[in-house]
Automatic annotation (TrEMBL):
This is Heat shock protein DnaJ domain protein. Keywords: Membrane, Stress response, Transmembrane, Transmembrane helix. The lineage of its organism: Bacteria, Bacillati, Cyanobacteriota, Cyanophyceae, Oscillatoriophycideae. Residues 103-118 have a biased composition (Polar residues). The chain crosses the membrane at residues 132-155. InterPro entries: DnaJ_C4, DnaJ_domain, DnaJ_domain_CS, J_dom_sf. CDD domains: DnaJ (cd06257). It comes from the Bacteria. Residues 103-123 are annotated as: Disordered. SUPFAM superfamilies: Chaperone J-domain. The keyword Transmembrane helix applies.
Length: 175
């Protein structure tokens, strides 16, 4: 779901860094600070365009382009290989300061440059039916435990609620 607008914004950023002009990031059309989810989406879109069975390019050029995409994705989706690749092209995610292109645009999730979680975005997929059922069972179990604690507490006190006094403190009231 990369749009031409996103790739045009990322083009000038890679031109500022000479090692990025012919990198795997440029090949996939993402910035080096892209999250694994953004890399996966870019690869998915480009693989649909350049797959030898679905493109209008010649078989040889489509195969070559598709193999380059596969190599780039295989490197960038593996955290260890990505880190060594970043060191090879001398890019550091931690020392590069990125200025947003439009400061008047409000902050949104889509223009976020990094995710709080390294590899999983909780909004990336809905919960499965098994996960929903597990959450339901946990809720029922919690409610059952609370109800059982209340019943046991009332049974031990013979149905009369008594005020709780801290240990060692005795209050005598004489009337």
């Amino acid at each position: 779901m990369t749009s031409p607008r996103n790739s045009s914004q990322q083009q000038p950023q890679s031109e500022n860094h000479p090692a990025l002009s012919s990198s795997y990031y440029t090949l996939l059309g993402v910035h080096p600070s892209a999250t694994p989810i953004e890399i996966r989406r870019a690869y998915w879109e480009l693989s649909k365009l350049y797959h030898p069975d679905t493109t209008s390019l010649s078989k040889a050029s489509a195969t070559a382009k598709f193999q380059k995409l596969n190599e780039a994705y295989a490197t960038l989706c593996n955290p260890d290989r990505r880190q060594s690749y970043d060191q090879k092209i001398r890019y550091s995610r931690y020392h590069l300061i990125q200025v947003p292109t439009d400061l008047n645009q409000p902050y949104s999730k889509n223009n976020r440059s990094h995710s709080s979680s390294a590899y999983l975005d909780p909004t990336d997929r809905p919960l499965s039916s098994g996960e929903i059922f597990s959450l339901f069972l946990m809720g029922i179990t919690l409610m059952g435990c609370l109800l059982l604690a209340i019943v046991i507490g009332l049974a031990n006190s013979n149905g009369v609620l008594q005020p709780i006094q801290p240990p060692g403190l005795i209050i005598l009231l004489n009337f």
